[in-house]
Amino acid sequence: MTDRTAISLENVSVQFGALDALNDVSLDIVHGKTTVLIGPSGCGKSTLLKTILHLVKPDAGTVKIDDAVMDERAVNVMRRRMGYVIQDGGLFPHLTARRNVTLMASYLGVAAADQEARLEALTTLTHFPVDAMDRFPAELSGGQRQRVSLMRSLMLDPEILLMDEPLGALDPMIRFDMQNELKEIFHTLSKTVVLVTHDMAEAMHFGDTVVLMNEGHIEQLGTGGDLVRNPKNDFVMHFVRSQRRDFPEVAR
C-alpha cells in the first residue's frame, strides 16, 4: 500500500528581495509520519514551514494539503487543520495558560464543556500540572511554556502539526526530557508532523524522514541513517561531521 501524501510542495520558490529563500523546492510529506527539516541558519527550513501554513506566499509553485491547493481562498479553512508551534512557545503574556490554550476554541464558539474536556485530555497527554493552568507564562518554566504551546496547537485536534525549533530555547536536561515526551506524543497521536531543527541528533531522534536543506534547496532526504552513512555530496558530509557528536545506529 502506497503512503498517502499529506502535504505536497511542487516547484516552490520564495524570494525576499534578491535572496532566494526557497529555490524550486519539491517535496512530498507523508501522512501520519514525522518529517524533519534541518540545515544551517538561513537555509530556508523555517521559510518552508511558513510557506506550508501560507504565512509566506510562494512566488512560484504550488503547496497542496491533501491535494487541495493552499491559496487565499482556502487558507482560513486549511489553517484550522494545522497546529503551529514556534520556538519558546509564542504565548500571549497577558493571558493565563488556560486562556492561551483555549483562545481559538472560544473564538470559534466551541462549547465550554467541550473545551474543558479537551483541556483535561491535553494536560494528561503533555504531563502538564492542572494547578498551573491559571498561571501566566512568566510564572511557568521553559518546559511548561512549551507544553502550553503544544496544547494550544492541539486544542482543535488538527491533522497536521508544524513545529519551528520548538525545543531550541530549553536547557539540555529539559530539552532531553521534552524530546522523549514529544516522540511519545507523536506516536500516540499518529499525526503528520513537520519539525524544524538545526540539531542532527534531534532530527534523527524524531524523523521518519530527514530533509537537509542548503541555500533554499534540498541537498538530501532520507532517514537520519542515510544522511550519516551515505551522504550524497560534500556539503551533506560536512554538515553531518560539523555536529561533532556520536550518532546512534539507526535501524530503518
Query: How do the strands of the widest beta sheet line up side by side?
Result: 6-7-8-3-9-10
Overall body shape: globular
Between the first and last Cα atoms, what is the distance in angstroms?
Answer: 18 Å
Instruction: Give the DSSP E fraction (strand runs of 2 or more residues).
Output: 25-35%
Give the helices and strands as they follow along the chain: EEEHEEHEHHHEHEHEEHH
Number of strands: 10
Radius of gyration: 18 Å
Round the mean pLDDT to the nearest integer and report it.
91
Largest sheet: 6 strands, mixed
Number of helices: 9
**Low-pLDDT segments, ≥5 res:** none
What share of the residues lie within helices? 25-40%
Broad structural category: alpha/beta
